Amino acid sequence: MDNLVERQVALVTGGTKGIGKAIADNLSKAGMQVVVTARTAPKENTNGQYFISADLATPEGAERVAKEILGKYGRIDIIINNAGANLSPGGGFSALSDEHWNNDWQLNFMSAVRINKALLPTMIEQKSGVIINISTGAAKQPLWEMTMSYSSAKAALNVYSKALANEVGSKGIRVNVVSPGVVKTPLMLEFVENIAKSSSITPDEAFKALIDKVGVPMGRMAEPEEIANLVAFLVSSEAKYITGTNYSVDGGALPII
Known about the structure:
It comes from Rufibacter quisquiliarum. Belongs to the short-chain dehydrogenases/reductases (SDR) family. The protein has 257 residues and is α/β, with parallel strands linked by helices. The protein has one domain (9-182, 223-249): NAD(P)-binding Rossmann-like Domain (Rossmann fold, 3-Layer(aba) Sandwich), CATH 3.40.50. Helix content is 46%, strand content 14%. The protein is built from seven helices and seven strands, in the order E-H-E-E-H-E-H-E-H-E-H-H-H-E. It has helices spanning 18-29, 59-73, 98-126, 144-168, 186-199, 203-214, 224-235; strands spanning 9-13, 33-38, 50-53, 78-81, 129-134, 173-180, 246-249. It has a seven-stranded parallel sheet with strand order 3-2-1-4-5-6-7, with helices on both faces. Strand 4 (78-81), helix 3 (98-126) and strand 5 (129-134) form a beta-alpha-beta unit. Helix 1 crosses helix 7 and helix 2 (59-73) runs parallel beside helix 3. The radius of gyration is 18 Å and the shape is globular. The two termini are 28 Å apart.
């Protein structure tokens, strides 16, 4: 973090909870001007981050965020596309309606596409910028009974990120992907509790079943800060020759090299 330039402007979508909050707080502590987005404002803002209320699953939400950032700061240096969630029910293909598929793709894929499209022209003009798209290990190791539409949307995000990195690399802009595994966030804990209720087991038993299903050699969830630390490195000057890469942070879960 010592090599991050103070007063850079960083956007963290979905930045009020879980992984997004950990990333935003990390960048704030480094001295950056951090903008966070979510549909609802956080209960407290202890790091002086600028909040924009927006639904990034809509074109209007992305346009409003970009317009407000450029109007206030006149520049954008870092984009962390973290907004995302597994919105659909489990149960495989037969449980998923067109609406489920559309909702997952709008939030987990199109939100990043729209934000990048709106802000990239400014980065290109500056001849510098870093984009980190937060994906998921489930994009490479999908669980059909839990994450089919979500995993598909994030897999598309991975391919898009590689293509974008190739397109804008010569313009001074780096694009990378961070793919967390099972992370201890409010959404994940709610997910575990729902598994417990539907299966008539305890939350501890549901957690163990999930870890066993995913196959996490380290035997625990990641802390949000462990994801944020990698993101902090990737946006720093220490990583200035790294682009077009997808980093797994999953406790060894992905069963391939």
